[in-house]
Amino acid sequence: MTTDKPQLMETKVPVVEVTSSNMKEVWPSLVHSIKYSSFISLDLELSGLGDRRHLMRKQYNSSSIQRNLQRSVDDRYTAIVDAAKTRSVLALGVSCWRVTQDEPEPQYYIQTYNILTLCRENFTVEPDALQFLVDHGFDFNKQYKDGIEYTPSTEDMIIFKEKKSTEPLRDVFAMILTAKCPVVTHNGLIDLAFLYQAFYAPLPANMSIFVADLQDMFKSGILDTKCLAEYLIREHATYLEYLFRKSVKRMEEAVSEGKQKVNLSFSEHKAIKTHVNHIECFAKKSASGKELCENYANHGYCKDGSKCPKSHDVNEAITSHDSHKSKKRKVEKQSDNRRNESVDSGCHRAGADAFMTGFIAANYALHLKHHPKKANGEVEGAKASKKSYQTSRDSHMSVTLEENRDIPLPLVLDPCRRAVNCLTLSGKNIPLKVMKSAFVKPSAAHMRQQHEIEKKYGK
């Protein structure tokens, strides 16, 4: 049995390291955590993304904006499919958030897992991705020794019922799909495509079918924290660590001002405590005294990396941005370089990133509850009197709210309803709606997998 214990924000976050050698021991805890979640946040470590230029396809010149967008999205999807079929998942982060109290302040009980994975087939490893992971403490020796093996989906794959005994990662993904709770991601389109290809079925031929499958798979909805930050909160920057540090700052301010805040309790994992790492997610760096690197501050990426003579401190970036709120908001340009986004040394793991993603969602939900204009897609304050480049996407989000009214969200996430089933499309003014067209049917592979999963886990 695991017990919860209220934790201060300074406390390290417990993350269970799941490997092939301890999977049987950890399995009951993982199953229980997923089953009783109010929402589940996910993150992946990948061996690469392919040519990022193809992930940032520009619109074609044409008279139809919608046709431009669709052609651009289709090209991008083709690039994502190629990456998912040739690269691999190195680790899967699963953070299970259970609401134990809604009012007067939300209380969450959190269990987080970092699952090492190992693809059985040959795959491409990109030098940049390798260097990034090594710089942030990823242990490739441990991954190759103790990673849980999986076989990526192929057209002639054996369907779920014949793989379930040898591929626990497919069981994990199946349990997430049947948990009847929302899934939270950050810049989630790529992660969802990799999850689909690795642990579910071969990716469909085009984006329209993929979107139809996603809507059918995640019946309780998908939340993208990058989408929330971009379209509703309207943050200055939207890379993962920036949003996490900004959420921590808001929480600290709420505590100091006696306002409502998000309360966290973590599992002590007593039965499996030897497999728990305690991660310093909330730790702050001391002020560097260096000039701030504007590229890193705005995009979470600097081509010079650790060799840059300027500061890459995200808290300093937030302080700088908060002091210049009256300046025109900059649009993030490097947002599809998701594996270049950096966090404090010792914190970057798929499990830790999954926790941070969930933390952002929980804090944004509370923030939107107290700022109903933002939750409704309206611009607050002085910005409201100015014509915004976001006009098209604001109307898009208004339509989305009507479409999302019947999605079963936990009460604490209801303020985020407008952004449910919207995924960020980097470089675009509007998100991708996870909503199937009346003219598109889900794929046959998805229907087969769903049938087999429902037979084992129920609807």
Helical fraction equals 40-55%
- Give the structural class: alpha/beta
Strand content: 5-15%
State the distance separating the first and last CA atoms: 27 Å
Indicate the mean pLDDT.
Answer: 82
List the helices and strands in order: EEHEHHEEHHEHHEHHEHHEEHHHHHEEH
Number of strands: 12
Main sheet record: 10 strands, mixed
Give unreliable regions as ranges: 1-8, 58-68, 326-346, 382-389
The number of helical segments is: 17
Question: Shape, please?
Answer: globular
Verbal overview:
The chain has 459 residues and is an alpha/beta fold. It contains 17 helices and twelve strands. The strands form two sheets. Strands 1, 2, 3, 4, 5, 6, 7, 8, 9 and 10 form a ten-stranded mixed beta sheet that branches. Strands 11-12 form a two-stranded antiparallel sheet. Helix 3 crosses helix 8 and helix 10 packs parallel to helix 14. The longest helix is centred in the first third of the chain and has 22 residues.
What are the salient characteristics of this protein?
459 residues; alpha/beta; 17 helices; 12 strands; 40% helix
Concise account of the structure shown:
This protein is of the alpha/beta class.
Secondary structure: elements and pairs:
Blueprint: E1 4-6, E2 13-18, H1 23-35, E3 39-46, H2 52-55, H3 65-86, E4 89-101, E5 107-119, H4 127-135, H5 140-146, E6 148-150, H6 160-163, H7 168-177, E7 183-185, H8 188-199, H9 207-217, E8 222-224, H10 225-233, H11 240-257, E9 263-267, E10 276-279, H12 294-299, H13 314-322, H14 350-369, H15 372-375, H16 391-403, E11 422-423, E12 432-433, H17 444-457
Parallel strand pairs: 2-5, 3-7, 5-6, 5-9, 7-8
Antiparallel strand pairs: 1-9, 2-10, 3-4, 4-5, 11-12
Helix pairs in contact: 3-8, 10-14, 11-13, 11-14
